[in-house]
Amino acid sequence: MKNFGIVKLFAKKLIFVLFLAGCGNQQIIKTDNLETVKSLCDEADSQTLVIFDMDNVLTESTERAFHADLYPQIKDVVDEFRNHVKKLPPSEQEKLRGAQWEIPVCLVDESMPELIESLQNRDVKVLMLTANPHGKVANVDSIENLCDSRLKNLGINFEKSWLSVDIKRGFNNELTIFHKGEIFTLESKEIALKRFFEHLPEYNFRKIIFLDDKRKNLEKVKKLAEKQNKTFIGIEYLRVFTKKRPKTDLFFIKNRFKQLIN
Ligand SMILES: [Mg+2]
Question: 14 C-alpha vs ligand 1 centroid, how far in Å?
């Protein structure tokens, strides 16, 4: 049985190597399996940058109502809630956004911290890139400090990869900041990344591996990699949609959103 497992693992790896060889220098693959991600990271070296999206890749809400896999089933009430929020005065909108940030998060995969640490131990740079604002939102004084301490409490430390790097002065602006190995941006992700590379000319990354749950982010960063002649492996990581969840009472969940509106 043990031998069969090894053969299966080897076959999987071989399929990958053949797949990658046949796909040219920039490609995007879709997976919900962390083992596949690990295989793709096997070849990463000190000239590789591995980038992780935060929401729905590293972390997700601890509250079932906000899990991405439920959305298609409760779309009507969620959309109603979102439209309701848009009509509120700005101060009320901010309060609701702040309340969302106060809900604790958990890991999407329990073994993601291990993968990130093993990359860091091999001298591979890892970066977090999230399409979230920075600074104060309602009662949360600093979104970037909140996210960084949450990730650290869950065993992920991006700062470790960038201890000797300080790009804040030139790089940070109202829309985008680099904070302890994490980029928070309201620009498009590839625009933030392009600027990031411009501010770090001493790091000539030859390869980018980028995990995100949104295809459009991967497509845009792929284009940037093509222009800059970098090898690119985009991983459309869909674990949040397929992982095993407790049976969910949709009636209760829908009521939860309705209560938020009233
Ligand atoms: Mg995401």
Answer: 29
User: For 76-127, how does the pLDDT look when each residue is reduced to its tens digit (9 = 90+)?
Assistant: 999 999 999 999 999 999 998 999 999 999 999 999 999 999 999 999 999 9
pLDDT digit string (tens) for 49-75?
999 999 999 999 999 999 999 999 999
DSSP conformation letters of 153-206? HTT--GGGGGTT---HHHH--SSEEEETTEEEESS-HHHHHHHHHHH-TT----
Q: How far is the CA of 61 from the centre of ligand 1 (A)?
A: 12
Instruction: Compute, in angstroms, the gap from residue 181 CA to the centroid of ligand 1.
Output: 17
CA of 111 to the centre of ligand 1 (A): 18
